[in-house]
Amino acid sequence: MSSTPDPAARAVRALARASRVLERSSAELNLAHYRVLSAIASGDERASRVAQRLALGRPAISSAVDALSKRGLLVRGEVDGDQRATALSLTGAGEALLARTEAEMARRLTGLAARTPDGERLLETLAWLGPAIDEAMAEKAGSEKSRSQTMTPPR
Predict the structure, then answer these.
(1) What is the pLDDT of residues 1-20, one digit of tens each?
(2) What are the b/e assignments for 96-123, b being 16+ CB within 10 Å?
(3) Closest CA to 33 of 73, 85, 89
């Protein structure tokens, strides 16, 4: 086995370490709760959509929503026309904490990027990961839906 991993493995290792740097950016908000708040702030208001976007199960999203609600960072509401769905929105305190946390995370990431040969390009390239993840998840959801439809006998 080679002692120098390939570029993709080195990138995985670096991203895993970077996630720890980001996680330490806030004493008030862990990375899992940050992800939930940022998904809601990005427009995913239904708990089911937040869970899907973050690839979390119902128990995990329920636990996070409960904890964030108790802290006064988000509120639950009803979705018009769907009694089973829960709408989520950030409170003012949730928006403020998210903004503070993101500012500190961005400061730390920018500081690390400045230590690379082309920090600006690195940040721009990392930003491409979000849409790429969304696209991959949409394709996966589409193929899973297609598979389940082909496995269901016609009525």
Answers:
(1) 557 789 999 999 999 999 99
(2) ebbeebbebbeeebeebbeeeeeeeebb
(3) 73
